[in-house]
Amino acid sequence: MKTVKSYFLIAVSVLVITHLAGCSYFFYVKAGGHVDEKVEFQFFKSLDDKESTKFNVLDFTVEEYRNDGSWVIVWAVRGEEPLSSIEYGKKYKGLDQAVEAKPLSKDAKYRALISATKWPSSGIGRSGVGFYFDGSGQLIQEKVAEN
Questions:
Q1: Three-state DSSP class for 4?
Q2: What is the distance between the terminal CA atoms of the chain, rounded to a whole angstrom?
Q3: What is the CA 140 to chain-centroid distance, rounded?
Q4: How many other CB atoms sit within 10 Å of the CB of residue 2?
Q5: Half-sphere exposure (CA, 13 Å, Cβ side) for 22?
Q6: pLDDT number for residue 25
Q7: pTM for this model (two decimals)
Q8: Domain covering 27-141 assigned CATH 2.30.110 in the classification
Q9: pLDDT tens digit string along 92-108?
Q10: Do residues 7 and 96 lie in contact, with contact meaning Cβ atoms separated by under 8 Å?
Q11: What is the DSSP string of 130-144?
């Protein structure tokens, strides 16, 4: 009887893991802008896409790297809002500001992390992008790894 229960638990575990893996996906974020102006993050199904894609944003966080190796949140929104891009610090109807936007600096390194569902369907996807600003304040996106 123990063997049957063990096989049943293994079978159920495999089905759950397979289902969860099938419900998740990856997409790409492209960042652009200027430290003293608008900083925007656009969402794409692939790196080759020319037009951004609408995703149902659940969570968007921007973190700043510190010299001690830690990351500190400088802006975070949570909720649910269908968007094809998001602007740093902007308020959105369906997203609550978990952390109010702090000024960005030319002297820091950042990363943006997002969780979203394919709008209007389901399945949670995650993505992120690293960036910094050059001496003139222009945003420089770190190289994106292909999946």
A1: helix
A2: 44
A3: 17
A4: 6
A5: 6
A6: 64
A7: 0.78
A8: no
A9: 999 999 999 999 999 99
A10: no
A11: EEEE-TT-BEEEPPP
